[in-house]
Amino acid sequence: MKLNDTQLSQVDAQIKRLVKTDSYYGKKYRELGITEVASQEAFEELPFSSKDDLRNAYPLGIQAVPDEEVVRIHSSSGTTGKPVIIPYTAKDVDDWAIMFARCYETAGVTKKDRVHITPGYGLWTAGIGFQAGAEKLGAMVIPMGPGNTDKQLQMMIDLESTVLTATSSYALLLAEEIDKRGLKDKIHLKKGVFGSERWSEKKRKYIKEKLGIELYDIYGLTEIYGPGIGISCDAQNGMHYWDDYVYIEIIDPKTGKTLPDGEEGEIVITTLVKEGAPLIRFRTHDISRIIPGECPCGRKHPRLDIIKGRSDDMFKVHGVNMFPSQVEELLALVDGVPSEYTINIAHDEPANKDIMLVTVEAEGRVDFEQTGRQIRDLFKSRIGVTPKITVVPVGTLPRSEKKTQRVIDHREQ
């Protein structure tokens, strides 16, 4: 999908504005002799930006406006290296709320709904983004934040929340608790808007069934406003994204070459009108594709497929490259095994070899030993690695209020 004339002029304006500043990217573009963008070809020759850039520019090197125009700071939820600090102007904050309100509207949320917000507040973009979008729409906001499941359920019942916003991991925890306590008939939820992490089809079906709601995937990242730049619709055929605010291209993560619509690769995002910290060709590491053609729902905004994983999620054992998505596809084939699992990888020094331990949950109706053998055999035949398998009862593995860490590589520690 190429830049249209409006988008091209917006990118050109961003470049021209940046090179007049002493920001990190202003200096970088001047050094490279970049002063304008006059064509698609010129755009695709622009250098990529990355999270490493933002860490190198810490704390506010990417700020492209005077201090007096910055009204808010957010930071990424990442746990490695220096944090990424993103400054927002008043217009950035409002633009984000407008996009988020569109997301709610796309999910069929109205002013009559009561939006129960469980993602975290503070430097993270989630909670405040979900709140601002709902307020912009005119819905009732219940700003719970994460944790205190007893209070969450009490408020959900007493205030008759109709829309749940959460990470899929916390939605799973709430669904399990509602099921365990027999509260399904007491809750009034109709829709769930979930983001922040990729989730398996098994987890999706479980949450949908236990809560009796329609599910919508919301997309975004702190560096590009936050959640709310795209969402799935009732057609459940990809996520519409707001191309009047962001331009999205898909690249081959190895070569950096732009791929045609329909081909899977890494999502690269350009902010078209962002003021505080505009980003040009930002590599997200998220893997997806642009879905060609129009959506059955009739909306004209382009679509991204559901996020398949991250190009930096890959881990290697015995020389074999693996992704969490492969593990989830494999576990989906096993009867009685729901969505929760963890992988621990360590190096056995005396034997001088890597050890991979996969822990999965299984329902009590299945034979754990036989299930473990089936999973081990599937790993061997489909991935080419034979891990040690531990099968535990459902509910044994820890549940998270944020993102769930699936792979723990002790070799790096």
From TrEMBL:
Keywords in alphabetical order, please. Answer: Ligase, Nucleotide-binding, Phosphopantetheine, Phosphoprotein
Query: What EC designation does it have?
Result: 6.2.1.30
Annotated Pfam families = AMP-binding, AMP-binding_C_2
The AMP-dependent synthetase/ligase domain extends over: 44-270
Report if keyword Nucleotide-binding is assigned.
Answer: yes
Q: Which GO terms describe its molecular function?
A: nucleotide binding; phenylacetate-CoA ligase activity
An example GO BP is: phenylacetate catabolic process
Pathway named in the protein's UniProt entry: Aromatic compound metabolism; phenylacetate degradation
- Where the record annotates domain AMP-dependent ligase C-terminal, the positions are 319-411
The record, for CDD domains, names: PaaK
Domain of life (superkingdom): Bacteria
What InterPro entries does this protein map onto?
Answer: Adenylate-forming_Reductase, AMP-bd_C_sf, AMP-dep_Lig_C, AMP-dep_synth/lig_dom, ANL_N_sf, PA_CoA_ligase
On assembly, the entry states: Monomer.
Q: Which family does it belong to?
A: Belongs to the phenylacetyl-CoA ligase family.
Classification via PANTHER family: ENZYME, PUTATIVE (JCVI)-RELATED, PHENYLACETATE-COENZYME A LIGASE
Name of the protein:
Phenylacetate-coenzyme A ligase
- The scientific name of the source species is Coprococcus eutactus
